[in-house]
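User: Show me a protein chain along with its predicted structure.
Assistant: Here is one chain, sequence first, then structure tokens.
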Amino acid sequence: MTRLIPRLVIGLAAVHFAVSLVASSTFGEVAHDGFWNAVPGKPQREYEMWFFLAGFGLLALGTLSQRIVRDTGRLPAQLGWYLLAIGVPLQILYPVSGAPGLIVLGVLALIAARRDSAGDGRRTTTAD
């Protein structure tokens, strides 16, 4: 599970990018308007651009945690807390969203991080 969770977060980022580019006309409209200042004051464009940009945040969390797992063999608990910090308020403010996925991934990340740290404790005591 330790190696799977970062991949799932990266997959969620890919879904954000795909949905933004395929199911939206915002990018075409923004390009038509010349990019500069083409989003403010247009709620649909603002929403879709933030949705797209959230993909980069998820990509960063996923790739950085993947690197940490590769280097240390452990999943950082911070990943779980960050995913919950995003998912829980999103679920409250916008119930029909992908928030449950963030919450599930956050809980799974915390479980994996706890197992990783418990496993280190067992290894330390047996090595002594």
